[in-house]
Write a structure and sequence with these properties.
The chain has helices at 3-10, 15-24, 45-51, 63-75, 119-135, 137-142, 155-164, 175-178, and strands at 29-33, 39-43, 83-90, 94-104, 107-113, 147-152, 170-174. The chain is of the alpha/beta class. The strands form two sheets. A five-stranded mixed β-sheet has the order 3-4-5-6-7, sandwiched between helices. Strands 1-2 form a two-stranded antiparallel sheet. The longest helix has 17 residues, at 119-135.
């Protein structure tokens, strides 16, 4: 997470206060600067041991993807039902991995983050959601098909995604709108 995300998530008042709190936790954290100039923090070995985390995350290529997903998570109020990278599989027909799945007001949502994917990859993912909906597997269990929520970078990409998602229950946000 970036310092700003940690600050918003935990209600740390000013930038100076947030930097002080993070400096006091430096024995539990590692950090690096990403291409946007933001400092990205992650749990080091001692931090992971302290909280019981097993997955090590350090400097990763998908940092922009994770930052976009984090910003959306914070924006919608950090729901307890949130799960990252959820796989849905219909044996022999389809496998799809949602960037996140969460519930708001008892209704399930799929989150897709469009950071560096090609638009062809996004279109293919939307077609997988269409296929999943047409199979009716989730509707049998949930009595509805979850809303598809996208976070993307530009207005042009939003319009293209909206066109491909026609007929689906979809909401599309720009990253700048949710930060």
């Amino acid at each position: 997470m970036s310092r700003g995300q940690i600050q918003r998530l935990h209600g740390l008042a000013g930038d100076r206060n947030a930097r002080r709190v993070l400096a006091n936790m430096d024995h539990l954290l590692g950090s690096w600067r990403c291409e946007t100039g933001e400092t990205i923090f992650y749990l080091n070995k001692y931090g992971r041991e302290r909280v019981g985390a097993e997955k090590a995350r350090q400097k990763i290529a998908q940092v922009g993807h994770y930052l976009m997903r984090n910003d959306f998570y914070i924006r919608i109020g950090a729901p307890e039902s949130w799960r990252n990278e959820v796989r849905y599989k219909v044996e022999g027909v389809l496998t799809i991995v949602a960037d996140a799945v969460y519930q708001v007001n008892g209704r399930r949502h799929f989150l897709e983050v469009d950071h560096l994917q090609t638009m062809a990859q996004n279109e293919a993912k939307i077609e997988k959601y269409r296929l999943l909906r047409s199979l009716g597997v989730l509707q049998e269990r949930l009595k509805y098909f979850p809303r598809l929520v996208w976070v993307t970078l530009t207005e042009g990409r939003r319009k293209q995604l909206a066109g491909w998602c026609e007929g689906l229950d979809v909401t599309i946000h720009l990253w700048d709108e949710i930060r």
